[in-house]
Amino acid sequence: MSGEFYHPPVKRSVEIAGHKTSISLEPLFWDLLRDAAEAEGVPLNALVARIDAERIEAATAPGLAGAVRLWLAARACR
């Protein structure tokens, strides 16, 4: 694995239920998130909103960035 994967997080704005929020993710996770949204045929904001709704229902809800990373990891394991 090359050093290109070890890039600090990049903050980007997303809109969830009509409210803007920012998420800091490493570029690799942004790429994976975009690919997942495209594969599921939904806009990136809609996918993040779905992940957010799922994380809020968790017994011990992680932060949104952590939830996105966990969701992507679980998706990769399918």
UniProtKB/TrEMBL annotation:
GO terms for molecular function: transferase activity. It comes from the Bacteria. InterPro entries: RHH_dom, RHH_sf. Keywords: Transferase. Residues 9-74 form the Ribbon-helix-helix domain. This is Aryl-sulfate sulfotransferase. It comes from Croceibacterium salegens.
